[in-house]
Amino acid sequence: SPTLEPAPHGMLRTLAGTAFGFGLGYCMPKIDALTPLAEPVEEALRQLPLPKPAIKLTYFDIMGVAEKIRLACILGKLPFSDVRISMAHWPDLKPSAKFGQLPLMDVDGETFAQSNAMLHYVGKLTGLYPSDPKKALRVDEVIGVHDDIMLAIRPSILIMRDPSLSKKEATRKQATMRKELADVKLPEMLGYYEKLLTDNGKGYFVGSTPTIADTAVVAQIKWLSSGMLDGIPTTLVDGYPKLKAWYEKTCSVPEIEAWYSSQGK
User: Fold this and answer.
1) Distance, CA of 149 to CA of 190 (rounded, Å)
2) Using CA atoms in the order 204, 205, 206, 207, what is the torsion angle rounded to 10 degrees?
3) pLDDT tens digit string along 122-172?
4) What are 193-206's pLDDT values in tens digits?
5) Is residue 138 within 8 Å of residue 206, measured between CB atoms?
6) Which helix H or strand E contains 107, and what residues bound it?
């Protein structure tokens, strides 16, 4: 009789993901009595020694848009190669980079772009993205607020690169933009986070365990509170008790605390 070859790791991951995804993603949300089991079952599955893909994440040596992905890998115990390039090296790399942008993620030798796609991929591999469709919708809702905040801040960063402005004029315009952000836009948007945490009432944004929504927002709040953004107070989250408590709690998760200790942050 013919000898059967062992299934490749990619096939094993696909088969396992299909079976677990069907059981958790289809059955549990439709049987109310089983829904409370989703989180502990997903946590148990996350601990299974399934084959892991070979992941390489390439970005600049800053937090930026890659930090949420790094944190998801760290929290989900997913090994990855954290490749950081200098700004000086980027012009040489850019012409060959997919979509001409960073971050880039290599998965078993195949290259992907777009940070949110990478975040969702890691979330699905690690169980940090819920299989329950409604919980997944809530996670995506939080990430949408995160993205809105980033879009609101972006013009105040790009203004400093406007070749039509002198440095003095660009700095003046940036100060005006940052004041509006600090006084109006960011307080309103941080209030959305506060309400989402209040509505969930379980210590995290969705459910009672961290998800990729938490890794995205904790990286963002760390950046906003870092003092790196001129005109944005480092105490901005102090007026939001649930958000501040969540931030301190999430930063104290052993994996995240160890990560920032190793980064000197």
Assistant:
1) 9
2) 20
3) 999 999 999 999 999 999 999 999 999 999 999 999 999 999 999 999 999
4) 999 999 999 999 99
5) yes
6) strand 104-107
Cα–Cα distance measured from residue 98 to residue 41, given in angstroms and rounded to the nearest whole number:
37
The H helix count followed by the E strand count for the chain is 12, 4
* Run of H or E residues at 85: strand 81-85
The number of residues making up the chain comes to 265
Return phi, psi of residue 210, to 5°.
-65, 150
Question: Could you give the CA distance from residue 216 to residue 33 in angstroms, rounded to a whole number?
Answer: 31
Q: Amino acid identity, residue 168?
A: K
In Å, how far from its chain's centre is CA 183? 26
The rounded distance, in Å, linking the Cα atoms of 232 and 164 is: 25
Helical ranges in 61-132 per DSSP H: 67-75, 90-93, 115-126
Query: How far is it, in rounded angstroms, from Cα 93 to Cα 121?
Result: 24
List residues bridging with 84 in a β-sheet: 59
Burial readout 235-264 (b: 16 or more C-beta within 10 A, e: otherwise): ebbeebebbbebbeebeebeebeebeeeee
